[in-house]
Design brief:
One of its GO terms (cellular component) is Golgi membrane. Residues 90-367 form the Exostosin GT47 domain. One of its GO terms (molecular function) is glycosyltransferase activity. Pfam families: Exostosin_GT47. This protein is an alpha/beta fold. It folds into 2 domains: 88-234 and 393-409, no CATH class; 249-387, Glycogen Phosphorylase B (Rossmann fold, 3-Layer(aba) Sandwich), CATH 3.40.50.2000. It is globular. The two termini are 32 Å apart. The strands form 2 sheets. The chain has a 6-stranded parallel β-sheet. Strands 8-7-9-10-11 form a 5-stranded parallel β-sheet, sandwiched between helices. Helices cover 42% and strands 11% of the residues. It is built from 15 helices and 11 strands.
């Protein structure tokens, strides 16, 4: 269920005390304890027992390091300790078998490209082969990857009807050739698609939609997304045109920003209400390149908040753009099962509103205090690594977060 951050809920974030202050106080307390311990041992015990002091110091320093690390990351996760332990187990044990069938020169095995707003699909296809999660032994696999790229089909001009036929024939071929699907009725199988054509292309295959895990960029109720089974794939527009933003609030003098096509009801309302406002920078069309190079991207650096209304689907690459450029995303949607929503506490680094809140948008943003703004921005910088694809993949990046979400769903009943 979508979390809301409206007029009545915008002050529910954690106290605005800065993390560095709390960490400093913790360090001071530990150092004070060590000082008293040292003085007590120095004047009450013989010299040979100094090793006892060293052991106390080592334990205390170790605890201090763990406490500071916990303080650094606790604010962005629902359960930081659970995530830390489960993630470590996932990296050690998780194995995925990739079906080898299909002509790699058509729609199987390889992505269409690693650029553009649907590049998440391509990166996953490449990353799974570059990672240590892949196994060539299906008997050791926790999950089975169905490597068919609907985005690649779209690039070759395949119609939706033919896509459905191609996917159906491919999956039915895997079911008849291998014994693995029938052991769980497909519950330990998954496929990945970022473009909504992939969601449409598989709608005609109920066994795939209802049984297997779907990692998709458009997690909408109207396409049958099931939150506890499926995975919300982050839609990332890579490569990013400009470097990461962050720790730069003093440069963010504008309140809020949005520019885009009016291809949904909420975008039409947003533009109509606020396009002439003096504090909200709202444009009812994408910024023309004729105005100058990278004008659109540069706007992210000077705004505190970046408005992210849904378009033709609930998802938008604008959300991960905002995260990358250090502009606090304002999610404006009645339903969006946000990427990694079961891991990350989105309330701690974004503002989440219902579509009806668009009428009070400016006042809601202005009511967020400076202290709350600082905390949101600091936490936003912390999550940036989770929304970045890399080749080869690195720990805690977008690929590993998707794999962790899959790991959480790998326990299935075998028949």
């Amino acid at each position: 269920m979508l979390m809301t951050f409206g007029k009545q809920t915008q002050h529910q974030s954690s106290p605005p005390a800065l993390l560095s202050i709390r960490a400093s106080l913790l360090l001071l307390a530990i150092l004070t304890l060590l000082s008293f311990t040292y003085l007590a041992l120095k004047y009450t015990t013989p010299a040979p027992q100094v090793s006892f002091l060293c052991s106390i110091s080592k334990v205390s320093v170790a605890k201090l390091i763990d406490a500071v690390a916990e303080e650094e990351f606790s604010d962005i996760y629902h359960s930081p300790q659970v995530f830390k332990l489960n993630y470590a187990e996932m990296e050690k044990k998780f194995k995925v078998y990739i079906y080898p069938d299909g002509d790699p020169n058509t729609f199987y095995q390889t992505p269409r490209k690693l650029t553009g707003k649907y590049s998440s699909e391509g990166y996953f296809f490449q990353n799974i082969r570059e990672s240590g999660f892949r196994t060539d032994d299906p008997d050791q696999a926790h999950l089975f990857f169905i490597p068919i790229s609907c985005h690649k089909m779209r690039g070759k001009g395949t119609s939706y009807e033919n896509m459905t036929i191609i996917v159906q024939n491919y999956v039915e071929g895997l079911i008849s050739k291998y014994p693995y699907w029938n052991r769980t009725l497909g519950a330990d199988h998954f496929f990945v698609t970022c473009h909504d054509v992939g969601v449409r292309a598989t709608e005609g295959l109920p066994l795939l939609v209802k049984n297997s895990i779907r990692a998709v960029c458009s997690p909408s109720y109207d396409v049958g997304f099931i939150p506890h089974k499926d995975v919300a794939l982050p839609q990332v527009l890579q490569p990013f045109a400009l470097p990461r933003g962050g720790n730069d609030l003093e440069n963010r003098t504008n309140l809020g920003f949005w520019a885009g096509h009016r291809n949904s009801k909420i975008r039409v309302i947003l533009a109509r209400l606020w396009e002439n406002d003096t504090e909200l920078d709202i444009s009812n069309n994408r910024i023309s390149r004729a105005m100058g190079p990278l004008i659109y991207q540069k706007r992210f650096y000077i705004n505190k908040f970046c408005i992210c209304p849904g378009g033709s689907q609930v998802n938008s690459a604008r959300i991960t753009d905002s995260i990358h450029y250090g502009c606090i995303p304002v999610i404006l949607s009645n339903y969006y099962d946000l990427p990694f929503n079961d891991i990350l506490d989105w309330r701690k680094f974004s503002v989440i509103l219902k579509e009806s809140d668009v009428y009070q948008l400016k006042q809601i943003l202005k009511n967020i205090s400076d202290a709350e703004l600082v905390v949101l921005h600091k936490n936003l910088v912390k999550v940036q690594r989770h929304f970045q694809w890399n080749s080869p993949p690195v720990s805690y990046d977008a690929f590993h977060m998707v794999m962790y979400d899959l790991w959480l769903r790998h326990h299935t009943i075998k028949y």
